[in-house]
C-alpha cells in the first residue's frame, strides 16, 4: 500500500543523514505521537508480543505437538482453505459487482451500492444466525439446495458461505475507485485497434484493476482467516470436518489448556503473516511488471 | 473502507457502442450481480426480521424488555461509550502526527495501526487472557489485589478497544494528508494557539471524516463477538453483551428471542449504513460545490 509514495520524485535532500523528522511550525507533534504510541503499545503491541513470549516459554516440543495434532491440522486446513476459496469467490463476484455499480445505470443502484457495506455494519453473530436460518435444510434457500444434494449449513460449505459474506465489501470497495478512474481513452484505443469487448476486458481493463483486486482479495482473506462469529453458527463445528481454528482456540481456553490455545494462535498468526507477505510480494511484482510502480 | 469520499460518478452520457457491452450482456451482468447481492446480503437481512416476528409482536417485545436482555444492551452501550471515545482520541492524535509531520518510521507506524485487522478477534481476546488471566503475566498480582479484568467488564472493554483501534485513524490519515498543512500554518502565523488552531481549523476540516470513522467504529464496537466472547465469562446479566446474549438464546433453541435481539443489532447496522450514505452524500455535495467555485485553481 505504501508503493504509492514511490511515484514521487527522488528527494532533493543531499546524501547527508536525514534528520529524524523534518522541522515544522505546527505544534503538538510530540504530544500526538507520544500518546498514539503509548496507546497502541498498551492496547495492541504489548499484549500481542506477550503472546509470542508466552509461546516461546512453552518450548518447541509442546508447540509442535499441539499444532501437529490431527484435529488442529484439520482446523487450520479448513480455516485457510475456506478463506482462500471465499477470497477467490469474492474476487470474482466483487469485481462483477463493482463493474456493474460503476458502469451501468439501473433502478436501485444507489441502494445496491449502500448495501455492499452491510457485512461491515452487521454484527457477525447476527450474520451467522441469519445465514444459518437461510441456508439450513428447511431455510429459504437451503430447502431448494438440499434436494440437489447440496448441504450448506452445518457443513464445510457453510464456512465458505459465511466467509464470502464477511469479505465481500473489501473487494468491491478497493476495485471501485480504480474502475472509476480508468481512462476511457484506453478502451477506445483498444476498440480502434480492432479488439472486441472481451479482448479489451482481458488485455486492458483486467491488468489495470489486478493490483486493486489483489489488495481486496488480501484484505478479505485476512479477515476471513480470523473470522469467528459468523462461522460458528453455520458451520456445525464437527471436529475434523467443520471446526475452524479460532473455535479451537476457544475450546482449548475453556479447557484451561493455555499452552494449546497459545500454540494454535501463534501458528495462525505466523501463517497469516507469511501469506500476507507473499501476497504483498506478488502484488509488488505484478505492479512492477505492468510498470505501475 | 476509506470510501468516505468516493463519489459515485454522475450518470455517464451514453457510451459509444465500441466501448460498451451489448445490451444483453449488460442485463446479464447486472442481473448476476444483483442476484449475488440478493442471495448473500438481502435475504439474510430479511430473514432476521421475519424470524424475529414469527411468533408475533408480543413475544418479540417480551424478548427485548426481559431483564437479561436489558442488562446486555446496557453493557453494550457502556462498552461502546468507553471504547469509541478512546479510539477517537487515539485516531486524531495518530492522524495528526502521521499526516501533518514527516518523520522516520512513519510507514511502520501505519502498518502497526492496521495490525488489529490482520489478527483474529479470538486472538485479540486471548492476548488479554494471557496478560490478565489467573495464569497470566499479571494474574497473581491482580488476584492479590482483588482486581478482576478478564471475565469482567474491563476485559470486555479492552478487547473491544483492541479490535476497533484502526477504524478512526484509518479514515483520518488519508483525509488529513490530502488536506495538507497550509491552513494550520496560516492559523499559526496569524497568532492562533495550538488548541485554537485545532478547534477552529483542523476539526471543522475533518469533521465528516471523523464522524464517518466514529460510526464504523461504533458499529464494530457494539457488534463485536469473537474477542468479547473470549474475555467475557458469559455471566448472564453481568458480563453478557448484546451479541453474546443472542448466542446464548440461540444455543438454548429460543430462536424467536434470539432473532428479536438480533433484529435490534441489525437495525443498528441499517442505521449505520444510512448515516454512512448520508455522510458520503454530504461530502460529495461539498466537494461538488468546492469544485464549482470559479477561479480558485489555475487552469
Structural class of chain A: mainly alpha
Query: What string, H for helix and E for strand, traces the elements of chain B in order?
Result: HHHHHHHHHHHHH
Could you name the CATH homologous superfamily of chain A?
Answer: MetI-like
Question: Could you estimate the helical fraction of the residues of chain B in percent?
Answer: over 70%
Task: Report the C-alpha radius of gyration of chain B, rounded.
Answer: 24 Å
Radius of gyration of chain A: 23 Å
Low-confidence stretches of chain A: 1-15
Can you lay out the helices and strands and say which pair or pack?
The complex is a heterodimer of chains A (293) and B (299).
Chain A: H1 29-58, H2 60-67, H3 70-103, H4 109-115, H5 118-121, H6 124-135, H7 142-145, H8 156-181, H9 184-192, H10 197-226, H11 229-235, H12 245-254, H13 258-289
Helix pairs in contact in A: 1-13, 2-13, 3-8, 3-10, 6-8, 6-11, 8-10, 8-11, 9-10, 10-13, 12-13
Chain B: H1 23-53, H2 56-65, H3 67-100, H4 106-118, H5 121-132, H6 139-144, H7 153-164, H8 166-179, H9 182-189, H10 194-223, H11 226-232, H12 242-251, H13 255-292
Helix pairs in contact in B: 1-13, 2-13, 3-7, 3-8, 3-10, 3-12, 5-7, 5-11, 7-10, 7-11, 8-10, 9-10, 10-13, 12-13
Structure summary:
The complex is a heterodimer of chains A (293) and B (299). Chain A contains 13 helices and no strands. Chain A has 293 residues and is mostly helical.
Explain the overall architecture.
The complex is a heterodimer of chains A (293) and B (299). Chain A is an all-alpha fold and 293 residues long. Chain A has a single domain (60-292), classed as MetI-like (MetI-like fold). Chain A has 13 helices and no strands. Chain A has helices spanning 29-58, 60-67, 70-103, 109-115, 118-121, 124-135, 142-145, 156-181, 184-192, 197-226, 229-235, 245-254, 258-289. In chain A, helix 3 packs parallel to helix 8 (156-181) and helix 8 packs across helix 10 (197-226). Chain A is globular, with a radius of gyration of 23 Å. With 299 residues, chain B is an all-alpha fold. Chain B has helices at 23-53, 56-65, 67-100, 106-118, 121-132, 139-144, 153-164, 166-179, 182-189, 194-223, 226-232, 242-251, 255-292. In chain B, helix 1 crosses helix 13 (255-292), helix 3 packs across helix 12 and helix 7 packs across helix 10. At the A-B interface, helix 1, helix 3, helix 4, helix 5 and helix 6 of A face helix 1, helix 3, helix 4, helix 5 and helix 7 of B.
Amino acid at each position: 500500500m505504501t508503493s504509492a509514495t514511490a511515484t514521487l520524485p527522488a528527494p532533493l535532500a543531499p546524501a547527508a543523514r536525514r534528520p529524524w523528522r523534518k522541522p515544522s511550525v505546527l505544534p503538538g507533534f510530540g504530544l500526538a505521537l507520544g500518546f498514539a504510541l503509548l496507546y497502541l503499545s498498551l492496547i495492541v503491541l504489548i499484549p500481542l508480543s506477550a503472546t509470542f513470549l508466552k509461546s516461546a516459554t512453552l518450548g518447541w516440543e509442546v508447540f509442535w505437538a499441539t499444532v501437529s495434532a490431527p484435529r488442529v491440522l484439520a482446523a487450520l486446513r479448513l480455516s485457510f482453505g475456506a478463506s482462500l476459496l471465499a477470497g477467490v469467490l469474492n474476487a470474482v463476484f466483487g469485481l462483477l459487482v463493482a463493474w456493474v455499480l460503476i458502469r451501468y445505470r439501473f433502478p436501485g443502484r444507489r441502494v445496491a451500492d449502500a448495501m455492499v457495506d452491510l457485512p461491515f455494519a452487521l454484527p457477525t453473530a447476527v450474520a451467522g444466525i441469519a445465514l444459518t436460518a437461510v441456508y439450513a435444510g428447511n431455510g429459504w434457500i437451503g430447502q431448494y439446495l438440499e434436494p440437489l444434494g447440496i448441504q450448506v449449513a452445518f457443513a464445510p460449505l457453510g464456512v465458505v458461505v459465511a466467509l464470502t459474506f464477511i469479505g465481500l465489501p473489501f473487494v468491491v470497495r478497493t476495485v471501485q475507485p480504480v474502475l472509476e478512474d480508468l481512462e476511457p481513452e484506453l478502451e477506445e484505443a483498444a476498440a480502434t485497434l480492432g479488439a472486441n469487448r472481451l479482448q479489451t476486458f482481458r488485455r486492458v481493463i483486467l491488468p489495470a484493476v489486478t493490483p486493486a483486486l489483489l489488495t481486496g482479495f488480501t484484505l478479505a482473506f485476512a479477515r476471513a482467516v480470523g473470522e469467528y462469529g459468523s462461522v460458528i453458527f453455520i458451520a456445525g463445528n464437527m471436529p475434523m470436518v467443520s471446526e475452524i481454528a479460532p473455535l479451537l482456540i476457544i475450546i482449548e481456553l475453556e479447557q484451561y489448556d493455555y499452552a494449546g490455545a497459545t500454540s494454535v494462535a501463534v501458528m495462525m498468526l505466523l501463517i497469516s503473516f507469511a501469506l500476507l507477505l507473499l501476497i504483498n510480494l506478488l502484488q509488488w511484482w505484478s505492479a512492477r511488471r505492468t510498470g505501475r510502480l | 473502507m476509506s470510501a468516505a469520499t468516493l463519489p459515485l460518478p454522475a450518470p455517464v452520457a451514453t457510451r459509444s457502442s465500441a466501448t460498451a457491452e451489448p445490451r444483453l450482456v449488460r442485463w446479464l451482468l447486472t442481473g448476476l450481480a444483483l442476484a449475488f447481492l440478493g442471495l448473500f446480503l438481502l435475504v439474510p437481512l430479511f430473514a432476521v426480521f421475519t424470524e424475529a416476528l414469527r411468533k408475533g409482536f408480543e413475544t418479540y417485545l417480551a424478548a427485548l424488555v426481559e431483564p437479561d436482555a436489558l442488562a446486555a444492551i446496557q453493557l453494550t452501550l457502556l462498552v461502546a461509550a468507553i471504547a469509541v471515545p478512546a479510539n477517537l482520541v487515539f485516531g486524531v492524535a495518530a492522524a495528526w502526527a502521521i499526516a501533518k509531520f514527516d518523520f522516520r518510521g512513519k510507514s511502520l507506524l501505519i502498518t502497526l495501526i492496521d495490525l488489529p485487522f490482520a489478527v483474529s478477534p479470538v486472538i485479540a481476546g486471548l492476548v488479554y487472557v494471557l496478560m490478565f488471566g489467573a495464569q497470566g503475566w499479571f494474574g497473581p498480582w491482580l488476584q492479590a489485589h482483588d482486581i478482576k479484568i478478564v471475565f469482567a467488564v474491563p476485559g470486555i472493554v479492552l478487547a473491544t478497544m483492541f479490535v476497533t483501534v484502526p477504524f478512526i485513524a484509518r479514515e483520518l490519515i488519508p483525509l488529513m494528508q490530502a488536506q495538507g498543512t497550509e491552513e494550520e500554518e496560516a492559523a499559526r502565523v496569524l497568532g492562533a494557539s495550538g488548541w485554537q488552531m485545532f478547534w477552529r481549523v483542523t476539526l471543522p476540516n475533518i469533521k465528516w471524516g471523523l464522524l464517518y470513522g466514529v460510526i464504523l467504529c461504533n458499529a464494530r464496537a457494539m457488534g463485536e463477538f469473537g474477542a468479547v466472547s473470549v474475555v467475557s465469562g458469559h455471566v448472564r446479566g453481568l458480563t453478557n453483551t448484546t451479541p453474546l446474549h443472542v448466542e446464548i438464546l440461540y444455543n438454548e433453541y429460543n430462536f424467536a428471542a434470539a432473532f428479536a435481539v438480533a433484529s435490534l443489532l441489525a437495525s443498528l447496522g441499517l442505521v449505520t449504513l444510512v448515516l454512512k450514505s448520508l455522510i458520503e452524500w454530504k461530502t460529495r455535495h461539498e466537494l461538488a460545490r468546492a469544485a464549482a467555485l470559479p477561479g480558485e485553481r489555475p487552469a
